[in-house]
Specification:
Length: 625
Amino acid sequence: MHSQKIFKAFTNSVRQTALQMVTAAKSGHPGGSFSSIDFLSVLYLEKISKNNAPIIVSNGHISPAIYAILAELGAFNKKLAIDEFRKDESIFEGHVSIDVPGVYFSTGPLGVGVSAAAGLAKAFDLQSDKRPVYAIMGDGEAQEGQVYEMAHFAAKYNLNNLVLLVDYNQVQLTDSLKNTMPIDLKKNFQAFSWNVYECDGHNPNQILETVNKAEANTKKPSVILCHTVMGKGAEFMEKEGVAHKATWHGKAPSQEMMVQALKELQNSKEDLAILKKFIKKLNFKALKLKIPKPLAKIPGIKIPKPIVYSTDTLTDCRSAYGEALKDIALQNPSVVALTADLAGSVKTNKLQKVLPSHHIECGISEQNMVSVSGGLSRAGLIPFCSTFGVFMSSRAKDQARVNDINQTNVKMVATHCGLSVGEDGPTHQALDDVNAFLGHPNTHIIEPADPNQCDKIIRYIAKHYGNFYVRMGRHKFPIIADKYGDPAFGKSYKFQFGLSDRLQKGDKVTLVAIGACVYESQQAINKLNRFSDVDFFALSSLNHIDSKILKSIKKTSKLILVADQFVDTGVFSVMSNALIHNKVSPKKVSYMGVKRYHRSATQKYLYKQARLDSDSIYKQIKKFI
């Protein structure tokens, strides 16, 4: 341990910076920042500066502490952080941001960061990286269900490289831990089968000794309960923290309070000189994330030849997904699959059988699965995480949103979407799932038209950087054929995100179909006397409508859009926006989608009830021509 004098000078200076940041911004979270600064400083000075280990701060609101420590270590200009904290879209956001040098993962919603850290730890295990992974969490954060999911996951996979430090100041946003929701962290983590340690979170020697013990214990993940006082180091906050009052959780002090506290924290000229010399010798190198541009090709990824299903094949897209994923993973060690107790249903079991080490079963914990995927991605792996569409888009939406903010490389593949789920009933009908991800600007939404296109899509997203949400149904249906009777998405077909596929030229009506509705639409066209009446498109990239379709609508002035989604959401909204923004005004429009929840029935019956079947589409075409 470095000398007490250096440590005191360092933490005094850090507290001064953090206090000035919050006061200048007139907002922020000084209480938890001050209670965390001592054990964070030990980590940075004694561990991270030497082993270059990653740290994810799950309680991202303590950003003043993190930014102040990084500034003290020379990662960026201290005055810049003070002046720009929480202001005018500065990188120094209110919650820790990856735009700040030294930050691995942007956090804010509690519980997400610890799962991302567990993902990093799992990635290091697969990559034989011997570095520890540090995670920071507030005590009240442990009330989040996702923390429980993470704890079980870390224990199952024996993530002995994961060291979690808890700021145990016993104060939450509105009140004490006891009055808000009393929990026994020690007993909880013991029940999770973790190593549990405790220390005085303001005693640097105790902190370092405890971290060393945790790192030396290679049998289980470890948690360190750092007993702290909210606001430690500033008298006006500390006295409230001792009484377990939440006064300074998220409140900026007055200018007068700050001035008085700065006096209390003032270092002597001699100490400042010693500290400056020490920092220079430490030569800390802050991580600067290099995030590829969306859809950039990922170097080193080998994509094997696609599987082509003949037109006499009857299968489902989820089986095609499983086969493609298995093919890709066998040639690329960086590809891993995750699921939440649904391997057989989402077909990741195909990979599991041949490459069990790269199949990560998360149990019934979709939130943890998606955040773990974010952590795996940050370590350079390519995670494909799969569950049913209803769970991916509702239970794990917040986690997917945080991944979106972090610009990760997570491939979310959801099956059993729409009325295709059939007998499972309305609780399992993912009908608004596209809408859930349309608000994520760094997430690309895709739905394959048939198993052949699904195969090409999975290979494409494995090779291209970014977050993807690929949705597909449950039922089997025939392969889409071209006008010659060959597979429309066969050997020569190349998927390109953002481009639709014209399956037939026509001049009287524009028909755009998505997913399994492409087959139903093709069957409807086949009933017509003149196929050339219909300009027919399969739309697979659901974030926007491309120019080919818009030109067609201008020409025909009639549009039929068919999708197994709620009619007032998802791709229907995307189409409406595209028509408005591009000043395209068709004379006739029919949006054929789902208008209500449907009870359990076969997929075929449900498609007929919702007018997604070929007969209903045929009748609508006849009305328009």
